[in-house]
Every structure is written in structure tokens, then in C-alpha cells.
């Protein structure tokens, strides 16, 4: 069952379509803080994208061409890709093992060696984890 829901991120709210039976997700855009500052950056937009995973309890972004095309309006405004987000309809607030493996791979490919993942639970709270490939440390919660 799909419902509109607000994601709380700091003092901002972003509307998404939440599905209690299937993970949903997308990309997060905004202005990045300096490397030595902790935090997610100033989020300007949350883009929801179709889930291409075959299983309901997984989220996979669409192919890169679709992601780029849908992201253009944010990139042309000067926003940076801060990371991605997806839901855990089960209410689990922590990344799964699969999430951790995928995010470290994305951090390895990013210019800064850092990638961020937001997990949305059924209460609309976004918990953000930072993956730093340069240290391979356990993902750190940088915003709850």
C-alpha cells in the first residue's frame, strides 16, 4: 500500500511516496559541507526513483542514464549528489549487510572517498550513515 509521507531532515520536510510492502528510494542533492565538517550537508532536494530490484525487501537505483537524466535539474542548479536513500518498511533503522557492501563500493568510486546513505523508517525519520572508504570504518551515524 502506497502513501504520501514526509521525511524529516533537520528543519526541512520532503514528501515521498512510501510503500509499506516494498522498499522505495532515490538520491539526495544539496550543498556539501567541507571535508573536515561532520554532517550531511545542506540538503536541497530528495529525488525519488523507481526501484528496479526484483525483491520487495531490496532497493536498487535505476540504470545510470535514467539517474543522470532525472538528476539534471538539480545538478544544473549547482547542487551536488550527497548520497542516496531508501526505506526499510520493516522499521529497521540500520543498514543491512547488503547496504554496507554497496555503500563502501560507492564510496570507493566517489571523488572524496565518502558516500552517504539515508534510511527511512515507517515513522518518516531519516537516519543518515557516512561510509568512508579511506578508513573502512564502521558506518557512522551523522544524523538521526
SSE layout:
Layout lengths: L1 E8 L2 E8 L5 E7 L10 E8 L14 H13 L3 E8 L9 H13 L4 E7 L5 E7 L7 E4 L1
Parallel strand pairs: 5-6
Antiparallel strand pairs: 1-2, 3-4, 3-5, 6-7, 7-8
From the structure above, extract its key features:
Cytidine Deaminase, domain 2; alpha+beta; 144 residues; 40% strand
Helix content percent band: 10-25%
Instruction: Tell me the major beta sheet.
Output: 6 strands, mixed
Q: Can you tell me the residue ranges where pLDDT is under 50 for at least 5 consecutive residues?
A: none
Content of β-strand: 35-45%
Total of DSSP H or I helical runs spanning 4+ residues: 2
| CATH homolog superfamily | Cytidine Deaminase, domain 2
Question: Which structural class matches the secondary elements?
Answer: alpha+beta
**Biggest β-sheet: strands ordered side by side in the sheet:** 4-3-5-6-7-8
Order of helices and strands: EEEEHEHEEE
Shape: globular
- What top-tier CATH class fits best? Alpha Beta
Q: What is the tally of beta strands?
A: 8
Report the mean per-residue pLDDT as an integer. Answer: 78
Q: What is the distance, rounded to the nearest whole angstrom, between the alpha carbons of the first and last residues?
A: 26 Å
Whole-number count of domains:
1
Radius of gyration: 14 Å
How is this structure best described in words?
Strand 7 and strand 8 (140-143) form a beta hairpin. The model has no long low-confidence stretch (mean pLDDT 78). The chain contains 2 helices and 8 strands, in the order ββββαβαβββ. The protein has a single domain (2-143), classed as Cytidine Deaminase, domain 2, CATH 3.40.140.10. It has 144 residues and is of the alpha+beta class. The protein is 18% helix and 40% strand. The chain has a 6-stranded mixed sheet with strand order 4-3-5-6-7-8, with helices on one face. Strands 1-2 form a two-stranded antiparallel ribbon. 26% of the residues are buried. The protein has helices at residues 64-76, 97-109, and strands spanning 2-9, 12-19, 25-31, 42-49, 80-87, 114-120, 126-132, 140-143.
Amino acid at each position: 500500500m502506497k502513501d504520501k509521507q514526509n521525511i524529516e531532515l533537520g528543519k526541512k520536510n520532503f514528501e515521498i511516496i512510501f510503500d509499506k510492502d516494498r522498499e522505495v528510494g532515490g538520491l539526495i542533492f544539496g550543498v556539501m559541507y567541507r571535508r573536515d565538517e561532520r554532517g550531511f550537508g545542506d540538503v536541497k532536494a530528495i529525488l525519488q526513483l523507481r526501484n528496479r530490484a526484483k525483491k520487495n525487501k531490496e532497493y536498487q537505483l535505476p540504470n545510470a542514464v535514467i539517474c543522470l537524466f532525472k538528476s539534471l535539474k538539480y545538478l544544473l542548479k549547482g547542487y551536488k549528489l550527497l548520497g542516496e536513500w531508501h526505506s526499510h518498511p520493516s522499521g529497521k533503522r540500520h543498514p543491512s549487510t547488503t547496504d554496507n557492501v554497496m555503500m563502501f563500493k560507492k564510496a570507493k568510486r566517489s571523488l572524496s572517498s565518502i558516500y552517504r546513505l539515508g534510511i527511512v523508517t515507517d515513522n518518516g525519520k531519516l537516519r543518515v550513515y557516512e561510509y568512508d572508504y579511506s578508513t573502512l570504518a564502521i558506518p557512522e551515524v551523522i544524523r538521526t
